[in-house]
């Protein structure tokens, strides 16, 4: 595996750990309401904060804000990296069929089987009838089908379908995408500026109407109206970088992005501190239009800087294989699919224990990682599970893979 592929592999493992930590710590944030809302009463706030524990720590709020404002942008960027080469290799129809199988089928499995299991403890907290039959009656009466963190899957599928349609209508569109990142290796600042400007153009108008933490539910489909276009921009940016090539483009191990990793990390920290300061002023009564605009601009700059900073740091320091991180990365999709069940049940189990918030949060994270990792590894050990969770075909086809395709499979971002 090349240094770039290994860095992306390690980054993917780090990203999934960040997702698990974010969800594990949510029950212990100081800003949560004093008590949970009713299960079957609008606005159904339990979908955002399923378990609310009495033990809190402000540090989890800062960690949660840091992840909430930039982690999904990074995930969408990584999701777009190998899409166009895969389209060229397979063709639009075969590519789309594969995406439906690997994204659509797990999404439906998760929404209609895993999410009821995950949210059952939430119902039990204030239920008169805590039985499964009582829960099921309330669950099926909801005006939507909660999808938890699995919303990411259907949105990525939608973006993949849109890219496949573009390829089918105009196969040479990849050349135009590649030109967007053609000089990003030598001039990452220009690419950063383009990304930030494009994000601001699509995000700021919607942010004036809808807050980033507000969601819309429609059947099994959930999304953030103010953030959706921003995620699309990062996905397209990933497409462009993937088209321009790794060894000579933005992601090259010796390119300017990796060499100036400290600049991007420092910029991310500065952007986050600016956002926190402005958000605090607004919370404490200084709610004026100018401060709201500055807060949203800070979000845009922080997200782009953090995305660049994360990638640059791993390109600079994460080019060696780390066995544990590589195993987590290899099973990242399965861990993501199953982790929410274990998060909520662990938080529910610890509700009545007299432990500090930090101990509870770390405990939930370790329990969730161990159990979801074990389930993902077990499922990946059978052919169908390996195909769905890791993109691995039957062993008989292994010999036909090129070294480049094998690197893509190991990174876990390809077909």
Task: Report on the architecture of this protein.
- It is a single chain.
- This protein has 415 residues and is mainly alpha-helical.
- The protein has one domain (3-411).
- 68% of the residues lie in helices and 1% in strands.
- Strands 1-2 form a two-stranded antiparallel sheet.
- Strand 1 and strand 2 (221-223) form a beta hairpin.
- Mean pLDDT is 90; it is low at 393-415.
Helix and strand arrangement:
Blueprint: H1 3-25, H2 58-68, H3 71-80, H4 83-90, H5 92-125, H6 132-141, H7 151-169, H8 173-180, H9 188-207, E1 216-218, E2 221-223, H10 228-244, H11 256-259, H12 261-283, H13 289-317, H14 323-330, H15 332-349, H16 357-380, H17 383-390, H18 403-411
Radius of gyration: 21 Å
Biggest sheet strand order reads 1-2
Helix percent band: 55-70%
* Uncertain regions spanning at least 5 consecutive residues: 393-415
What is the chains' assembly state?
Answer: single chain
Mean pLDDT: 90
**Shape field:** globular
Judged by helices, strands and strand pairing, the structural class is mainly alpha
Distance between termini? 17 Å
Overall tally of structural domains: 1
Approximately what portion of the residues adopt beta-strand conformation?
under 5%
Number of helices: 18
Major sheet size, sense and barrel closure: 2 strands, antiparallel
Order of helices and strands: HHHHHHHHHEEHHHHHHHHH
Number of strands: 2
């Amino acid at each position: 595996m090349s240094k770039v592929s290994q860095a992306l592999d390690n980054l993917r493992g780090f990203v999934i750990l960040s997702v698990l930590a974010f969800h594990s710590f949510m029950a212990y944030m100081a800003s949560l309401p004093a008590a949970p809302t009713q299960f079957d009463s609008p606005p159904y706030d339990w979908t955002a904060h399923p378990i609310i524990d009495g033990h809190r720590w402000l540090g989890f709020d800062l960690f949660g804000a840091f992840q909430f404002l930039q982690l999904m942008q990074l995930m969408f960027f990584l999701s777009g990296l190998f899409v166009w080469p895969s389209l060229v290799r397979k063709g639009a129809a075969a590519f789309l069929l594969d995406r439906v199988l690997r994204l659509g089928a797990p999404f439906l499995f998760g929404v209609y089987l895993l999410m009821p299991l995950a949210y059952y403890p939430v119902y039990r907290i204030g239920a008169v009838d805590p039985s499964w039959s009582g829960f099921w009656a309330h669950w099926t009466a909801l005006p939507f089908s909660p999808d938890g963190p699995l919303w990411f899957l259907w949105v990525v599928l939608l973006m993949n379908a849109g890219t496949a349609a573009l390829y089918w209508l105009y196969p040479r569109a990849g050349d135009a995408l590649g030109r967007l990142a053609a000089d990003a290796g030598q001039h990452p600042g220009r690419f950063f500026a383009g990304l930030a400007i494009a994000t601001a153009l699509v995000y700021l108008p919607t942010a004036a109407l809808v807050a980033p933490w507000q969601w819309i539910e429609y059947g099994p489909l959930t999304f953030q109206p103010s953030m959706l276009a921003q995620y699309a921009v990062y996905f397209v940016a990933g497409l462009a970088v993937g088209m321009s090539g790794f060894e000579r483009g933005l992601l090259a191990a010796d390119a300017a992005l990796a060499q100036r990793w400290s600049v991007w990390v420092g910029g991310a920290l500065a952007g986050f501190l600016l956002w926190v300061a402005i958000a605090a002023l607004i919370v404490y009564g200084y709610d004026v239009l100018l401060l709201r605009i500055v807060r949203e601009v800070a979000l845009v700059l922080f997200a782009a800087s953090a995305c660049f900073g994360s990638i640059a740091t791993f390109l600079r320091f994460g080019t060696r294989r780390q066995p544990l991180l590589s195993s987590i990365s290899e099973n990242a999709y399965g861990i993501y699919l199953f982790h929410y069940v274990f998060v909520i049940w662990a938080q529910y189990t610890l509700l009545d224990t007299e432990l500090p918030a930090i101990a509870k949060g770390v405990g939930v994270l370790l329990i969730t990682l161990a159990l979801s990792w074990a389930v993902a590894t077990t499922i990946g050990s059978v052919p169908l599970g390996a195909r769905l969770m890791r993109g691995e075909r039957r062993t008989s086809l292994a010999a036909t893979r090129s070294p480049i395709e094998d690197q893509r499979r190991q990174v876990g971002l390809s077909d």
